[in-house]
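Annual report, structural modelling task.

Input specification for the arginine complex:
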Amino acid sequence: MLNFKEEIAKLLDVRVTGMSADEIRETVEIPQDSRMGDYAFPCFKLAKALRKAPPLIALDIAKSLGAEGLFERVEAVNAYVNMFLKKSVLTAAVLSAAIAEGERFGGADIGAGRKVIVEFSSPNIAKPFHIGHIRSTVIGNAVNNIYAFLGYDTVRVNHLGDYGTQFGKMIVAYRRWGDRAEVELRPIRSLLAYYTKFHEEAEKDAGLEDEARRAFARLERGEKEERELWQWFRDESLKEFNRVYAMLGISFDSLAGESFYSDKMDRVLDMLKEKGLLKESDGARIVDLSAFDMPPALITKKDGSTLYITRDIAAAIYRKEQYGFHKNLYIVASQQNLHFKQWFKIIELLGLGWADECVHIPFGLVSLDDGTMSTRAGRVVFLEDVLNRAIEKTREIVIEKNVNTDNADETARQVGVGAVIFQELSNNRIKDYVFSWDKILNFEGETGPYVQYSHARASSVLRKDDTARNAALSGADALDFSYIACESAYELTKLIYRFPDAVLEAGEKYEPSIVTRHIVDVAQAFNKFYHDEHILTDDETERKAKLALVFAAKQTLGNGLRLLGMAAPERM
Ligand code: ARG
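The model returned the following structure:
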């Protein structure tokens, strides 16, 4: 698609002295208020070089730019040059791109030939997959989709927490109080109950902790009995996680979790030793990070067992060798900021040369508006229950509102799950937020159902006149843009034009909420257009032009929803 900012920067470059082409491009802005033009160029920075007052410079530039065919008019207002594009030029660019690119509209190929690891979700096995995990899962999936849309070759990794001393405790607890049938029926709930009981009992009986340590040591050595139990816990837990992933429509390329690296530890220890980074401390081995104002990183415990951080270092080295990544992304809660800072520093100290290709993408906490979200047993809210409740509540609304659908169950699933995902991706990821039932299922607010509904509405208009739609989609050149030059149509067109930039910025900032907010704006502009304008008029030329715009809006909403990991229903 024609890049107008780029075009304008070029036109300015031949008229402006004292600023580099790059500087000019960075200075061109999009005014908040569209009455100030589609683009504006502030002249303050030129005053010094030209020894002239900025408003006078603006006047000169405006006069000369006004003759260019790109613009309807160019005005000088104080120190600003305000540029109004010829509507038909912008509309033609937007519609032909949306029609030609379809499901790829908004994407790019800047990532071609580059691999990006997106590590997300990474729950701990045998622990509940609770509402807190939704953040990494949903944000990570959206980041993955955005990178793939930008042309990167992404690898979705679920770094399962399937290793560590807690499995010793779980094994001991299961042997004492466990029941096979119960585990098979409700794996995570029962394993969690045994685990909780272990902690209660361990307060009375100190021997239990020792027993657990021994069980884990046996597991690490690969003793058959412990190994089999662990494998079974893992399989059963995964079955439960997979149910949630299926509901969310999420899959992974790799489930190499912490246990996968258990045999790759010695190499890490050797590398650390070779660089003289490993220090003895009380029988344990650490990397001293005091020179970087950080507490030491514990690499092995007294008994020689390795830790979470050791496995993270091994995993990064493995990924670099296995995939040759361009970037290695970690979507993990901000509580782990220090952990990532520590081990990124260790990778740097190892001198491997790719430490800054590793990026921690943190996010804030989620809590529920009824106050439940405590990790203490019993008060945990399972994500599966949240999704099911969202689907159930949506089904009630779908029936009550008599929503136009031939499959109420499927619509309730798409909209209910979508609502949860959308709320998750509505705010800057780093912000803490409160999960609110009232807010997410509102069909009128800035919500998932609202955007999906707008998409379905656009689809429904397009279905009403196949002939005109097909004619419109056979090419933008033959369309008469004067029918879509009114304010509501043009505002919508401009927002569609900016969609590819929103995707790009979301990728650069690892911030899916930029896409979320943008498609809310597109949905609102579409609904205003739909409300203000009669679309299926008797005049065929008019109908065609309007349907082409409806198509571009639908495509933008659909592509945006899919990037976020949501369904884009045709009927609602
Ligand atoms: N399993 C960890 C947890 O639930 C998150 C793992 C994050 N990823 C990583 N590479 N450290 O807290």
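DSSP finds 22 helices and twelve strands in the chain.
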